[in-house]
Amino acid sequence: NLHKKSVFREDILSDIKYTALIGNSKDIEIQKKVSLLKTKFDMMMIDGDHSYEGIKSDFDMYKEFLSDDGFLIFHDTVHEACPGVGKFVSELKEDKNYKLIGEFISKRYSYPCGIALFQKQEVTEDFDE
Predict the structure, then answer these.
(1) Which H or E run contains 85?
(2) Taking a C-beta distance cutoff of 8 angstroms, is the pair 57, 94 a contact?
(3) Would you say residue 125 has pLDDT above 70?
(4) What confidence tens digit (pLDDT) does each residue in 34-84 have?
(5) Which residues, at least 6 apart from 25, have a Cβ–Cβ distance to it below 8 Å?
(6) Closest CA to 115 of 83, 85, 95, 84
(7) Measured distance CA(28)–CA(30) in Å, rounded
(8) 101 DSSP 8-state letter
C-alpha cells in the first residue's frame, strides 16, 4: 500500500466488489487472511519483489488458492532489472501443471517489462498396466 498509485485504488475499483488485503505477501498473516476468504481465484497476478526467491515464494504460498483452470499472470518477465522473474517463468514453462498462454512484450518502450499468462492445467497420471 506504499506504492504512489495506491491512492487511486478506490476510484479505479468504485464499480467493482473487492476485498483489499494490504500487507506483505510473504507474511503468514496475509496468507491466513486469504485462506479465510474460502475461495479459489480465477485469476491471480504475481508482481512482488522481483527476485527469483520472492517470485517463487509468492507462487508457492498462493498457488493453492488458484481455481482448477485459473489464470496466473507474472509481471516484469523480461525487464533487465528483474532477471529472477524471467528465470522463474522459464521454469514454470516446463511445469505440466501450468500451460503458457502467451507472453506479451511491448515494443513501444526501450525497456520493456513483459507479462506472462499461464493457465492451471488438470494433470492426469498415465499408468502402464
Answers:
(1) helix 83-92
(2) no
(3) no
(4) 999 999 999 999 988 889 999 999 999 999 999 999 999 999 898 888 899
(5) 31, 48, 58, 61, 62
(6) 85
(7) 5
(8) E
Q: Residue 107's pLDDT is what?
A: 79
For the chain, what is the mean pLDDT?
89
- List all residues 6 or more positions away from 122 whose beta carbon is below 8 Å from its beta carbon: 68, 69
Contact 74, 116 (CB under 8 A): yes
Residue given cell 466488489 in the structure block: 17
CA 55 to CA 77: how far, in whole Å?
Answer: 11
Q: What is the pTM of this model?
A: 0.82
Distances (CA, A) of 56 to 18, 28, 31, 122: 26, 15, 15, 21
Which H or E run contains 123? none
Give the three cell numbers for residue 40. 479459489
Beta bridge pairs of residue 41: 66
State the amino acid at position 38 in one-letter form. K
Count CB neighbours of 115 within 10 A. Answer: 19
Residue bearing cell 499408468? 127
